[in-house]
Design a protein that fits this description.
The protein is 42% helix and 15% strand. It has 339 residues and is of the alpha+beta class. The strands form two sheets. Strands 1, 2, 3, 4, 5, 6, 7, 8, 9 and 12 form a ten-stranded mixed β-sheet that branches. Strands 10-11 form a two-stranded antiparallel sheet. A hairpin with a 4-residue loop joins strand 3 and strand 4. Helix 2 (12-37) crosses helix 4 (60-75) and helix 5 (105-113) packs across helix 9 (169-182). The longest helix has 26 residues, at 12-37. It is globular.
Length: 339
């Protein structure tokens, strides 16, 4: 065995070919492997490639391989990670969206207890109001991919965060939806899932929020985990439009925080993160976040690309009571119902 290892260490194909394989392999695993195999197997494979490169090709090349891989990921990756999708023509599908009135007890309490009027007071533009709310939610706690609150009620989440708890993307969007509804804006949580969500063991779904802007007559997406909203050619985007715009490259989209457009690094880093998720889009019909889950109406709508199979599970967990459509128009119907 030692003789074989020594021979491999001296062989030119290993010494010079392995770094090339490591660069390409690490790049491809990062861009596509995480959404297909899951994050843990992909990171293990990347680590093995890099360690083998360092061992067989001199550790001096290790840094160069890592640097070149990162350069490829950040410059080329944002143009590759967003999956191309196609949608059907309009379909007759009714979305019985239910959401809170700002005068309901939960929203009214959130608005008063956390002084949301001061957060968006004086801001007349609806899109800027959404931006300010996303920034406020983003600053309430730090992200944790595993920690869950004792309740899905936005008030409980905020109070536990005030005591030092950190939560997932889900909780950021729960609070964002609750805050928007407390200010009189219809809002909903939207799960976005990778193309391979049905077989992935973990990391297959991210959760964002969409808010209805009455003045524009459209839904717009916010990612309160990062405090980001999105615009293309001056027009605020919903989640599907974000994916369509990013297919033209990251330069096609403005990613904005409360401080204005984010820089090149932050933008490309976010596109690398969110791009693979922009394939399946799901939302529950009942968006009354202040009610116990058992009291909410069951069911939701899942938007799937034309020709794609219906997504029946994510992270190996079943999805129940979803209506499936490939019509963007059906998924983005105007809200009509306030109970």
């Amino acid at each position: 065995m030692k003789h074989v290892i020594k021979m491999l260490e001296r062989h030119p194909a290993v010494r010079f070919g392995l770094p090339v394989i490591a660069v390409l392999g690490s790049t491809l695993l990062f861009l596509f492997g995480i959404s297909y195999f899951g994050s843990t197997p992909s990171w293990i494979a990347i680590g093995v490639l890099l360690l083998l490169t360092g061992y067989f090709s001199e550790w001096g090349k290790f840094g160069a391989v890592v640097a070149l891989s990162l350069a490829l990921i950040f410059t080329v990756g944002p143009y590759l990670v967003v999956p191309p999708v196609g949608w059907a023509e309009s379909a007759e599908v009714t979305s019985p969206l239910v959401y809170h009135s700002p005068d309901d007890p939960g929203p009214a309490q959130l608005r008063a207890e956390y002084e949301l009027d001061d957060i968006i007071g004086g801001i007349e533009d609806e899109f800027e109001q959404v931006t300010a709310l996303a920034a406020w939610v983003n600053n309430r706690w730090s992200h944790s991919g595993t920690n869950m609150p004792s309740s899905s009620n936005p008030l409980v989440i905020l109070r536990e965060a005030d005591e030092g708890a950190n939560f997932r993307c889900v909780e950021y969007s729960v609070v964002m939806v609750g805050a928007a509804q407390s200010m009189g804006m219809p809002a909903r949580m939207v799960s976005i899932s990778t193309k391979h969500a049905a077989t992935a063991r973990s990391g297959a779904t991210h959760v964002v929020a969409e808010v209805w802007l009455e003045g524009l007559g459209k839904w717009v997406v916010a990612d309160p985990q990062l405090g980001y909203v999105f615009r293309a050619e001056g027009v605020p985007l919903n989640a599907v439009e974000l994916g369509e715009a990013l297919n033209g490259g990251p330069g096609s989209v403005e990613i904005l925080s409360a401080d204005g457009p984010v820089g090149w690094y932050q933008k490309n880093r976010y596109v690398l993160f969110v791009g693979p998720y922009l394939f399946h889009f799901g939302s529950l019909y009942d968006q009354r976040m202040f009610l116990p889950e058992q009291e909410r109406m069951q069911g939701g709508m899942m938007l799937i690309p034309q020709g794609a199979p219906e997504l029946r599970q994510t992270n190996r967990q079943p999805l129940l009571n979803f209506d499936y459509t490939s019509s963007v128009e059906a998924f983005y119907q105007a809200p009509k119902t306030i109970p």
